[in-house]
Specification:
Two copies of one chain form a homodimer.
Chain A: E1 4-5, H1 6-10, E2 20-25, E3 28-38, E4 49-55, E5 57-61, E6 66-70, E7 73-77, E8 84-98
Antiparallel strand pairs in A: 2-3, 3-8, 4-7, 4-8, 5-6, 5-8
């Protein structure tokens, strides 16, 4: 049991769209990711997903609207809701979701990560 | 589904040791709390608990050590581990824990909250 410093963890990687696990509790993962560019449309069949913006500004496109999240803002996306994150400039995000949540749901894409490194 | 601004949520209350629910997902609560002074010793029998420091510096006393958490740092306290938070000056904290986690475990104290307001 030790303090987890978010900025120190972000200094350990530079890849985009490759979430890293920084903690686990109650069957849930706490992940960090750096995002840049457009991700792909996907949903998670059984998992709600939380995005919390640490740095930058993230747009999330839904079928019926766009939501912009700025630093210090979070959004909970319910299961089954299709979404597409878009980061015009680099965004640092904290994710909270169940362990084993698939990166891009049932969609397979070159951006899809099958495993998440623990840092 | 809408953006949740953390600082705006913190502006809605001033009580200490009275967590407010700002979101729920996958059977878990996202809570905010303002802390000042010494809390009481307690543990949670079945729930791990995450503290993430938004503002200030929090000491958490354990039976065998003290951990200090500064802004931007988090700590995951495993179930059954007794802890006592101490905030010399006011601290703003974000908590992740299962819905229905009891505030002070099986301990009853005048500081114990039975219900958590949603804001």
């Amino acid at each position: 049991m030790q303090a987890i410093n978010i900025n120190q963890k972000f200094s350990l990687f530079n890849e985009h769209w490759s979430p890293k696990i920084i903690g686990q509790l109650n069957g849930q993962d706490v992940k960090l990711a750096k995002l840049k560019g457009e991700f792909i449309w996907h949903d998670h069949k059984n998992e709600d997903e939380l995005f919390y913006i640490i740095k930058g500004s993230l747009q999330i496109e839904f079928r019926d609207k766009m939501i912009t999240l700025n630093e210090g803002e979070m959004l909970i996306i319910p299961k089954k809701v299709a979404h597409k994150p878009i980061a015009k400039d680099e965004v640092w995000v904290l994710l909270f979701e169940p362990t084993n949540t698939k990166h891009t749901g049932d969609v397979k894409h070159e951006l899809t990560k099958e495993n998440f490194e623990k840092i």
